[in-house]
Amino acid sequence: MTPNRILVVDDDVSLRRIMKMQLEEAGYQVDLASDGQQAYEMLREQKHQLVISDLNMPTSGGIDLLRRISEDDLQTTLIIITAFGTVETAVRAMKMGAYDYVTKPLDFEALTLVVNRAMERQSLLEEVRNLRLALDQKYGFESIVGRSKALLRVLDQAARVAPHDTTVLIQGETGTGKELLARAIHHNSRRKNKPFITINCGAIPRDLVESELFGYTRGAFTGATMDRAGKIELADNGTLFLDEIGELPLEAQVKLLRVLQQGEISKIGSSHPVKVNVRVIAATHRNLSSMIEDENFREDLYYRLAVVPLHLPPLRERKEDIPELVEHMFRKIRERHGLNSVSLGASVMPHLLAYRWPGNLRELENMIERLLVLAPRDEIGVADLPEEVRKSRPSSSALLLDLPDNGISLEGVERELIVRALERSGGNQTQAARYLDISRRTLAYRMEKHGLAPDPQQAERP
User: Fold this and answer.
1) What's the pLDDT tens digit per position in 113-137?
2) Can you tell me the distance from the alpha carbon of 356 to that of 379, in angstroms, rounded to the nearest whole number?
3) d(Cα 81, Cα 455) in Å, to the nearest integer?
């Protein structure tokens, strides 16, 4: 889009030319149209930040143009030009979305002031749209990296539930991205422009949980010198994300149940309930069913929270996502620290695939950042990996296979592996057998089974 571009629409040729001259002197780029239809076609072809249109024209006037701009969401600001006797119609145009109006005969100094204000408004609108787009990209489901079936299944369920106000319980190990999924659900809901309030139930001292969640009134306890809203009230009309819900004390669980059942809270020190409209998304790494059996979590609260339960798989169950995750994290962290010359050696990936990643995505990201900032050379190798990752022995379980839906030949896969191992070892059977973690005799037998003739010059060389 060319910045500060204005489209002037008027059937008066002389007035159009004068306006073009005046606005160009003020530093704007100006295009001209003779009626609303021509203006509409020009707006479809090229974006203009501002349109100045006469209200009444013989064919297509300003009201019709305004309606079509609104229907097609052309994202421009419109100023109406009107004669004094049709001000009421101009006001109606403003109610339909026009920014302002000016009357004939035109005061070009006043017009320039209105145009400057309209341009400032349009610039702010553009900034808001860009920020919203950035938020959508950051917190949308597409920001969650990975294409494994285990992950896509969860994302599909989350995308379906997002537009509704249904309560969601996200379960998964520490570091699997539960908060990121919760934010994606919020930003794809009807509440996306309302607050997203997070509270970590395990990070609040036990005696402060209720005041943090529900708030308090002045004089409710020593030190309460003023009324204070709790996190639930702050999330009114938006989304409340209760992270580590399994750490919530039983007495607070009773009050949270009331929020879910009746949509109201009771502040500490007040006998008057306050109505709230919040969508609750909870998350935990704990086994809530076991906690219910041990009487550490209320069964009725569990069923209120788990209307739609989502389970985020640990990284060890979606290893086919690791290469893409590593590339994404490596690029992001490298740019953040200005280390664009550092690369990741090809020998590293098999070890990353073999490691179990008990800390999941968080552990992977932290390790990549550590590797980058401590890199002694431009290429990170196996020797630079943490000991526990370096010692993870690459095995067939770390092999990435694209399994077709219509089945696959196990015999064919075995033959292909042997062929590749032999190519890798230059035809040396001893080295190929060592690479495949089988005996040389077993390799010879399987080569014979698959009709693979040995290279006589390479077969016996150690």
Assistant:
1) 999 989 888 887 787 676 666 656 6
2) 24
3) 88
What CATH code is assigned to 145-313? 3.40.50.300
Low-confidence ranges of the chain (pLDDT < 50): 1-2, 397-398, 458-462
| CATH label, 5-135, candidates 3.30.830.10, 3.40.190.10, 3.40.50.410, 3.40.50.2300 | 3.40.50.2300
- Alpha-carbon gap, residue 315 to 301, rounded angstroms: 29
Distance CA 74, CA 141 (A): 26
- The rounded distance, in Å, linking the Cα atoms of 103 and 101 is 7
Report the predicted TM-score, pTM, of the whole model to 2 decimal places.
Answer: 0.61
| Topology of the domain covering 401-462 | Arc Repressor Mutant, subunit A (1.10.10)
Largest CA distance in the chain: 103
Strand pairing report for 239-243 and 279-284? parallel
How many Å apart are CA 188 and CA 441, to the nearest integer? Answer: 59
Span 210-249, pLDDT tens digits: 899 999 988 888 887 888 889 999 999 999 999 999 999 9
Cα–Cα distance for residue pair 227/223, rounded to 1 Å: 11
Q: What pLDDT was estimated at residue 70? A: 83
In the chain, residues under CATH classification 1.10.8.60 are 316-397
CATH 1.10.8.60 matches 316-397: yes
195's CB contacts (< 8 A; 6+ apart) are 234, 235, 236, 237, 238, 239
| CB-CB contact of 223 with 170 (8 Å) | no
